[in-house]
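Input/output pair, single chain:
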Amino acid sequence: MEQPPDRKNRPWRFSTFIYSSSILLLLLSILTLSFTKTNLYKTKSLFSNPKSKPPNPPSPPSRCLLWMAPFLSSGGYSSEAWSYILSLHHNLKNPNFRIAIEHHGDLQSIPFWNGLAKETKELAIEMHETECTPNETIVVCHSEPGAWYPPLYETLPCPPYGYNGEFVAVIGRTMFETDRVNQEHVERCNEMDYVWVPSEFHVASFVRSGVGLDKVVKVVQPVDVEVFDRLRYDESLDLGEVGDLVLGSGGEGLGFVFLSVFKWEKRKGWDVLLKAYLREFSGGDNVALFLLTNAYHSDGDFGNKIVDFVKELNLEEGGEGYPCVYVIDKHIAQVDLPRLYRAADAFVLPTRGEGWGRPIVEAMAMSLPVIATNWSGPTEYLTEENGYPLVVEEMSEVKEGPFEGHRWAEPSVDKLRVLMRRVVSNPDEAKVKGKRGREDMVKKFAPEVVAKVVAEQIERIFEEKTRT
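Output:
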């Protein structure tokens, strides 16, 4: 098994801002990947024709962008950070800056590293070896503000030296799922030169909370519209193979399939979804709800959690029984996610709050009709034309956790019932919305579109800071 890097015994060479490679420890375990096919090949090529000399490569730009994020973990910040790095790498031609990466902000995951594509691993090693000097470097701290310098828990500090003017600029990339930002996090945001957030909703909530208006910049998140393209795949994932039946009697055919993807926590609105679905449909409706979920500060016994929740609802089963509910709690590899979406007829997430809503935009890129709460991150891309925005019934107070005392949305159960029935009953309308959703993803959030936005921001900062 390939091992993720161990940074505890990591030697640092701060004077030249060259990080001794933690990811290079991974290189030892994939020697045939990186040496046999790269360095050895180059060596043989040079010795095979001693009279020929390789042309002198053009000097790389001295300016550098150091992106620090949870690159070796599997959370939302990790997937977002990789989406930016891959967008920049694949779409910038002759950029005026080099890109270096460093793991920061979360624990490392062996399964996540092993699940990365070979090309992504090679790129990770290459970018981690990139050397930068502080006075020509912009640092992006891509994590929740508690991980920023000085970190509130054990993680690599970002920026590495603190806010002492060593770097050209320091950018914080973050987001919140509630109506405000904690005061301590406001103070941390104001230490940054800039704070990048994904939506107009976040611009407003950060400024309202006290983050400087001159610091907050909207930078949307990319979605890989080539990977998440229904036409690219001939087959769908076999839902019967990966899903476990929790409610309903099942049968030979699944009928109309609703899909929801989320981690198991109150914020994601799984309770709202189950209430609406079980009250609106019965076993005679030929529908199925698949929940791809994973534990979040809880155990993973999702089937019994659902059964207990239904008992608490005092919802009578009726003569035709419950509509089918399936749980997918197995790991679905990133490369299989498009085929998962392809197996569904509609995507639904009655969330109480999202930073962005990555599964929502992935579903939209796959041309699925989408039902999602009309609040927080999704307001940046979800409209009546490209989906089914779910009405917020009221705002409620967060009762526990790090956002206790904040407020988030309570989506309407009754309106969700109406929308789910509407999608089932009007497939032509749903198809039109799904088609428009993909068009909007391609036009506004494709990697090449967002890469241009990020590059323009970075180049503008370099120009402004070097003039002063």
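Residues 447-467 form the longest helix (21 residues). DSSP finds 15 helices and 17 strands in the chain.
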